[in-house]
Amino acid sequence: MVGKTTSNNGKYSWTRKSHHLKTAQRPRPVRTVMTRSQRTSAAGFFNGLPAEVFHMILDQLTVMDIGVLSMVSKEITNYIVDYISTQAWRNKTIIQSFHNPTLLQQRSTLEHYRHLGVLFKRCTLLLPTKDRLKFIFSKFSQIPCFMLEQCLAPDCSGFSRYGVFLQTLIAGWDELECHRVFKFLCDQTNLLLKTEALLATKPGLKRHQELQLRLFCRKVLLDPCQNQPDGQFWLVQLLKPWPMVSQAQLLFILYGPLLNEGVLGWEDLVEGGLPHSYLLELAKAILMLFGLLQVKGWSTDSILSILEELIVIPQPWHVENVARLLVLCGSNLCYTFLASKALNGRLDEISRIIIYIILVCEKDGYHMSWAVKLVQQICKVFSTEPERFFFIQHLENMFSEVTREFFESSVAENNFEDRETFQTLCILLDSSARFHTKLLHMFLK
């Protein structure tokens, strides 16, 4: 709107009237800006609440919600640390039903302990590693189901829960911090002392302690690992304090065949051939170590030495079990093991193992061409033609010797009722025919 006004000199001037002038003249509200330090020191309205009321609020939240809330401020974190340190919260949240859980309960409980790992990771984020571990282990070391040899229930699932929690907690931690975790765990459980006591006794003499050590190390440290480097790290921590023969014994305790009665099958490997499923985990553990050749202090010779010690614990294994373990370990390790013996002139030994490898291939359904290629590779170890011929001659003589052994075992004392031995003899003859067919076919090609 435009209007006229009269100035002091009598002249007119034009002015513009606007409604916006009225609104612009209204007083603006004063905004108080809090600095970051003011906001964190105040801790919001929680600062004025009694601890009991704040705990009532936290009681209504899930474990994951509490973990998220702990990252709001340092003061809130301190409140939450006080809350999860109470006996009531520990009894309600950490201690679960570890005995005879259903499959559904087991899955939900594992997820619950994964969430607990996230919570403790977040609410101890600002603490040094030593203080973090001291606080966390103080909450869990009081629970018998998480400790070595303190829970006598045969079906306790406490170790599995503890393992999920621990691996979630330390996910992303560097190697130095994980070394501290291992040291803290050893101090809390006397792990090294109990391992030393077992390794000093005859294998199989303390079966309950062997099983407890196996379950704790497998469920807490080894099995929950999401990738091979993590598994290698923990396996090395468990093995490296001991001499080579003890490393082999401990490897058997951790991964050896477990019978239906829940005991390690020390004697069964000596008495006769076991199915491949009994040796599969042991083969995987050996391959895990075989992949550590880039780590300082580990070499091909050290892995082969452990393997040599392993197959004579508690006594020399049945040759079929040695052959089956080598087959499960794959071409690379199997060839390395046999080539090492060939270079040392142990032709009778490797010839017998190869015959049983051929038998295992026939029994377990492996391609016979794999065994033929293995023999061809070993032939290349020898530098001259006479040496290669001598090796092949040993191999053929061993075929005859092993066949004769099976036949004599079948006919001894009218033992034809022993169908297993007679069946193995038939399989050996079939495997010999198949092996030589493949071998001749390769040479003709």
The total count of helices amounts to 23
By secondary-structure content and strand pairing, the structural class works out as mainly alpha
Terminus-to-terminus distance? 107 Å
Proportion of β residues? under 5%
Give the overall shape, derived from the CA principal axes: elongated
Fraction of residues in helices?
55-70%
State Rg. 35 Å
Would you count the extended β strands for me? 2
Order of helices and strands: EEHHHHHHHHHHHHHHHHHHHHHHH
Question: Order of strands across the biggest sheet?
Answer: 1-2
Average of pLDDT: 82
Largest sheet: 2 strands, antiparallel
Low-confidence stretches: 4-24, 29-42
Structure description:
The chain is mainly alpha-helical and 445 residues long. It has a two-stranded antiparallel ribbon. A hairpin with a 5-residue loop joins β1 and β2. About 8% of the residues have low confidence.
Which secondary structure elements does this structure contain, and how are they paired or packed?
Layout: E1 2-6, E2 12-16, H1 20-24, H2 36-42, H3 51-59, H4 63-69, H5 74-84, H6 87-94, H7 103-123, H8 129-140, H9 158-169, H10 175-189, H11 191-199, H12 207-222, H13 228-239, H14 244-255, H15 268-271, H16 276-290, H17 300-310, H18 319-329, H19 331-343, H20 347-364, H21 368-379, H22 385-411, H23 419-444
Antiparallel strand pairs: 1-2
